[in-house]
Specification:
This protein has 564 residues and is an all-beta fold. The protein contains 3 helices and 43 strands. The strands form 10 sheets. Strands 2-12-10-4-8-6-7 form a 7-stranded mixed sheet, with no helix packed on it. Strands 34, 36, 37, 38, 40 and 43 form a 6-stranded mixed sheet that branches.
Length: 564
């Protein structure tokens, strides 16, 4: 018989029980009595296939009724009775039916109707008392369906007529999840009923029965006395070759012709190879202004399943465009120990000419942080993502270029410095390039200014960049410092500054010196606050220039050696 598998059923493994009610009763020959088959605290199910056997010379079944069953009464399910067989007569009888056996199989249309354990009536059996003595009302071949290939785990409790001695069997826990190669255990308890005592022989089988399937054993059989249960330990061993999946272990206790069973559910997970993960926090980074870095992203590299070894970090940016932002790391290699998480600081860098906003549907850049390792003998690769929005800065500049950054001959003494600048603010400003030259011993030094130029504005509020301008200055060290300052072998340091301000100084003092005596940039006046993002924080008094100058400078450094 085929039963439909209904996905989405999650077993919660309640300590469910299938039992006979009342547990025992007596009457006189010729009387009509009834026993009910019930469940208590049973996991969700949508049908059953249950046999109940009695001694027909003591009590003989005459009919089965599913009226009042909990599926129909409690959940309004449409119940379909597939087998109603009494004494091997009726509907759907099987080869297991025979004298004294009542057999009921019921299913419903649709999925499992309940979401949590439930209790109630399944069906009622009517008996005629045919003789004296006692009889066990024995549940066997009992299955409760849940729409999956495996029956619902439960324990069974038989009833009796005339109160014969008997026992019950149960497993605790009813289920366990392990990984291939591990062993699951459960305590099996056999309890005396109606004065039973004796040694109950324990056996177990696994369903499905597969090659290299789980092997169930017991440490010993269960010895039961009146009032003292017998216990044994069930061990279900697996190997790395045992197919992963769910197994039902049926535990059977036998004493003479009497046997009872309990079920244990084994969830066997696949053995997972050592591995690692990479993720970035936060995923959505603060807005980055072009030509400025974004602070404080963290790359989390975590060992899984005992992984240990070296992980190399690289990065990819999407979309791929010229001057796209990129990630740099505090370290590009991580040495992971088993179970360890290593945090690596990451900075998202951008260029003055980074396209803003990003030329993509979402107008953002995705920076993929990739971790790669060959420590396990195979190449493992995992990645985390950082999402960054790049906006144009109010002022942008490219790298300050030095014509010569290694040597300078005494014949020429010439050095040209240039820089590309761009004003993205909402109004024009003045820009100037200043170069400071200083010998190693400090005896020769000078400061040189380019002519201030107007930097046409863009509109940072509308993501409209300004016009790119090139500022440059050529320094003739022979004439401006003098030949005596250029002996062969001397080393000079050049510092080049880019400054922005609102106007040119009208006189040398106070524009030439700050309050601390530091030479200023030759620009004075105040620079009105810029509406919108302003990475340079340009404002009156910024960076110690005082109220007389709102200028701001950025600097690069180069060195050169004087050669013959």
């Amino acid at each position: 018989m085929l039963l439909a598998f209904v996905p989405g059923i999650t077993l919660v493994h309640a300590v469910g029980q299938l039992y006979i009610s009342p547990s025992t009763q007596t009457s006189t020959k010729g009387s009509i009595i009834q026993y009910q088959v019930k469940v208590a605290n049973i996991d969700p199910f949508n049908g059953w296939d249950i046999y109940v056997k009695t001694d027909p010379t003591v009590i003989n079944p005459t009919s089965i009724s599913i009226t009042g069953n909990l599926l129909a009464v409690n959940f309004s399910s449409t119940v379909k009775e597939l087998i109603n067989c009494v004494n091997n007569s009726g509907t759907g009888c099987t080869s297991n039916d025979g004298p004294g056996i009542a057999h009921s199989l019921v299913t419903i249309q649709g999925p499992v109707p309940m979401t949590k354990p439930t209790s109630g009536l399944l069906f009622t059996i009517t008996y005629t008392v045919t003789g004296s003595g006692s009889s066990t009302v024995h549940l066997f071949n009992d299955l409760l369906f849940n729409g999956s290939p495996f029956p619902v785990p439960h324990t069974t409790v038989d009833g009796s007529y005339g109160a014969p001695a008997d026992f019950t069997i149960s497993a605790s826990p009813l289920s366990q999840s392990i990984t291939q190669g591990q062993t699951a255990t459960s305590t099996i308890t056999v309890t005396s009923a109606n004065g039973f005592s004796g040694m109950v022989i324990l056996s177990a089988s696994a369903t499905p029965s597969l090659t290299n399937g789980p092997a169930a054993t017991f440490d010993h059989d269960a010895t039961v006395t009146t009032g003292t249960p017998g216990t044994a330990t069930l061990s279900v061993a697996t190997t790395t070759d045992t197919p992963f999946g769910s197994y039902t272990i049926t535990i059977t206790g036998t004493f003479g012709s009497t046997s009872h069973s309990a079920t244990f559910l084994l969830d066997l997970a696949a053995l997972t190879a050592p591995d690692f993960t990479v993720f970035v926090t936060p995923t959505f980074l603060p807005t980055v202004l072009a030509s400025y870095p974004s602070c404080c992203a963290t790359v989390n590299v975590t060992s899984l399943n005992g992984f240990s070894g070296m992980v190399s970090l690289t990065q990819n940016t999407s979309p791929v465009v010229n001057n796209a932002p990129f990630a740099s790391f505090s370290t590009s290699t991580v040495n992971l120990s088993a179970g360890q998480t290593v945090l690596v600081a990451a900075t998202i860098n951008s260029f003055a000419l980074t396209p803003t906003p990003a030329p993509s549907p979402k107008q953002v850049y995705t920076v993929e942080i990739v971790g790669t390792s060959t420590s396990t003998g195979t190449t493992l690769t995992h990645a985390g993502l950082a999402i960054v929005n790049v906006q144009p800065a109010v002022f942008q500049r490219g790298k300050i270029d030095f014509l010569r950054d290694v040597s300078l001959t005494t014949d020429s003494g010439m050095q040209t410095i240039s820089v590309k600048v761009q004003n993205n603010a909402t109004s024009d400003v003045l820009g100037q390039l200043i170069v400071r030259v200083r010998s190693t011993d400090g005896t020769c030094k000078g400061t040189f200014f380019s002519t201030p130029i107007t930097l046409p504005h863009g509109n940072v509020l509308a993501n409209q960049p300004g016009v790119q301008e090139i500022m440059s200055i050529t320094v003739n060290l022979n004439t401006q410092l003098g030949p005596a300052c250029l002996p062969s072998g001397e080393t000079f340091t050049l510092r080049a500054f880019v400054t922005f301000s609102g106007s040119v100084c009208s006189s040398a003092p106070p524009c030439s010196l700050s309050s601390t005596g530091v030479l200023l940039n030759g620009l004075g006046g105040t620079l009105a606050p810029i509406v919108g993002a302003n990475p340079l924080k340009v404002a009156v008094g910024a960076f110690g220039f005082g109220a007389r100058s709102g200028g701001f400078s950025k600097q690069d450094r180069g060195t050169f050696d004087v050669s013959p």
